[in-house]
Input
Amino acid sequence: MRLFDSHCHLTDAAYREDLEETLKRARAASVEGVVAVASTPGDSRNALGLARRHDGLMWSTAGVHPHHVTEAPGGDEMAAVRESADHPRCVAIGETGLDYHYDFAPRAAQRAWFERHAGLAGEMDLPLVVHSREAAEDTAAMVRECAGRVRGVLHCFPGPGELLEEALAAGWFVSFTGIITFRGYDAELVRMVPSDRYMIETDGPYLAPVPKRGRRNEPAFVAHVAGAVARIRGEPLEQVAADTWANAVRFFRLPEPNGER
Output
């Protein structure tokens, strides 16, 4: 069995002291693929650097998280994102999207940057990694606008079911994190997704799953997400692992088996 952590912020300071040990634990837990996700232009360069150093395990993304868009006025920052995205080890644009829970940036700025990222993804023929929190209506509108020209994933999928339906209709994927193990999560969302349209992730260092909740999250813990998906869907763990591995390889257009893209 092999597992794929499709979204982890490995450039975060939380891993600064023990990144190599973290990756060893991931391999010991059968994690054979990880995407290091970027949040700023500088982070995009750093994530690419990690992916290049760990080319048997890791790939990267390039983008500006909605929390950080006011730190990125526009042209120069998008040029830096494009530069990172042009490398073969970079396999997606993002993470981008909308966060109306924290509202760390004006909503209009978030939407503008979301559109910029979608345009770049379409131009470069790369998938789009999308964050959506308490912004389902505006996210759904962007998904509809992208349908047929940009493929994407709604990462750390929080719901609602209507947004899931919009994503599936557009040919998009969703990805599940440790929040599916939290009390109050709508498990029906996990059952609703076809077996060929979802991935699993940690979103580390955030959102560690039960039974690791309260600790720093890391790629090895994606095994607990896979186990929770298996229980919710009533499927063998090996089937969940096989499906999510195949889906990640297909979504990110990775080599099979692991190797240079």
